[in-house]
Amino acid sequence: MRVVIADKFPENYLLEFRSLGLEVEYRPEASATELPAIAGDCEILVVRSTKVTRETIEAASRLQLVIRAGAGIDTIDVDAASARGIYVTNCPGKNSVAVAELTVGLILALDRRIPQNTADLREGQWNKKEYSKADGLKGKTLGLVGLGSIGQAVARRAAAFEMNLVGYTRSPHLELAQSLGIVPCATLFELAERSDVVSVHIPGTAENRGLFGDAFFARMKHGASFVNTSRGSLHDTAALEKAMRERNLRVGLDVYNPEPEGGTASFDHPLCKLPGFVGTHHIGASTEQAQNAIAAEAVRICREFIKLGQPQNAVNIERASPAKVQLIVRHYDRVGVLASVLAIVRKYGLNVEEMTNTIFAGAKAAVATIRLASAPPLAMTTEIEDLKDQIIQVTVKPF
Ligand SMILES: NC(=O)C1=CN([C@@H]2O[C@H](COP(=O)(O)OP(=O)(O)OC[C@H]3O[C@@H](n4cnc5c(N)ncnc54)[C@H](O)[C@@H]3O)[C@@H](O)[C@H]2O)C=CC1
Ligand SMILES: O=C(O)C(=O)COP(=O)(O)O
Q1: Alpha carbon nearest to ligand 1 atom 23, residue
Q2: Could you list the residue ranges forming a coiled coil in this record (predicted)?
Q3: 58-62: Cβ within 8 A, 24+ apart
Q4: DSSP symbol at 214
Q5: How far, in whole angstroms, is CA 122 from its chain's centroid?
Q6: CA-CA distance, 215 to 237, in Å (whole number)?
Q7: Which sequence positions are flagged as catalytic?
Q8: CA-based end-to-end distance of the chain
Q9: Of 188, 190, 201, which is best to mutate to test ligand 1, by the most ligand atoms within 8 angstroms of its C-beta?
């Protein structure tokens, strides 16, 4: 099997891929437009933020698995992969601590204006008078949007600064929130009104696009801070600029919309020039610790995939099976039995949604569980039962 690694990846983990018997092509500088040609004949594609487009998925005729060596899968055309039966996985939770550390760094930098202090010192300017104005974090309220892996890691760190925590999450993680000392907010607007600092930790899905716009910022306190280390698509840049100018909002960003592809580029962004801004270059996950943890997880996913044919952490498996009925066929473990059973299922026009076949000790008998979208007619099960010397028992159960 051939694996293409189309992003920067720790060297020693490349060796681990090779030790799995994989032929490794390491293309750390590959761009999204080059990827269709590069990934053309690989079975496994590993990427960080390099976009995997429909063109790549369709050009890679042997592709079976795309591993996002990170958390967010918004850079991958998951629909295109699903339409061709290609697994997409990510490495959940493996870079959360790194992002949480950067988030706390941005919150501290916004309060004490550390980058602005440094810039003045670089310019030969001593300005203790100006920079002596800061609020302090103790007793201030941090509003966390999203209480997944990163939201929780930020909560734990902010608690050490004795901040009050409020949170908003779509899925009601009430017990979890309580265990972390997070007071749940019923709506995003309630969170905006209560928070001195808002920090965003939700995925950049289509439905979350532009969630933070005029209406949200208008509810934030004057002079409050907004931190986004998740995705640039989540905030409306123009609304953010307006809130910075009119409501003295302070903004800390690691992510932008749009963001340059690759490691270096010129970058002219309206927010970066405003005095209340601190920012980083989408480096939330870029610590050695996080990248080693991510790489180890990517290798683990590959190992399991090679062994079992199915990867862990797949994000594009249909969770709500269309199956309604299970046809359970106990049969002798002989050549052609399953083919005969399936031929009868086909004859009655029923689609097999899911299927497993489990062999019993001694390999004399097996049980096939065939999941169907609708109940089989009696004539069909009778026909299966009548397969000579092949069938032990047929049952039908709802699913
Ligand atoms: N700056 C960087 O380098 C990095 C950025 N990220 C970004 O952070 C995001 C979050 O990462 P994790 O915490 O690891 O993911 P996660 O999947 O553990 O948590 C996300 C949580 O957000 C919740 N959620 C989704 N939409 C929501 C909404 N509209 N309102 C409230 N809650 C909502 C989900 O239910 C889930 O609990 C990633 O999707 C990625 O975009 C992740 C890693 C590195
Ligand atoms: O894991 C994520 O979602 C990230 O945004 C990290 O991106 P990166 O792998 O550092 O390009």
Answers
A1: 146
A2: none
A3: 58/84, 60/36, 62/2
A4: H
A5: 39
A6: 13
A7: 231, 259, 282
A8: 37
A9: 201
Cα of 235 to ligand 1 centre, how many Å? Answer: 14
In whole angstroms, what is the distance from residue 237 CA to residue 243 CA? 10
Does the CB atom of residue 171 touch ligand 1 within 6 A? yes
Bridge partners, residue 278, by sequence: 252
- pLDDT tens-place string over residues 84-132: 999 999 999 999 999 999 999 999 999 999 999 999 999 999 999 999 9
Q: How far is the CA of 283 from the centre of ligand 2 (A)?
A: 8
Ligand 1 touching residue 151 (CB < 6 A): yes
Q: What pLDDT shows up at residue 357?
A: 97
Note whether ipTM > 0.85 here.
yes
Indicate the length of the chain as a whole number: 399
Residues of the chain with pLDDT under 70: 172
Can you tell me whether residue 166 is helix, strand or coil? strand
Of 130, 134, 198, the C-alpha closest to 166 is 198
Q: How far away, in angstroms, is 173 Cα from ligand 1 center? A: 14
- For ligand 2, atom 10: residue with the closest CA: 285
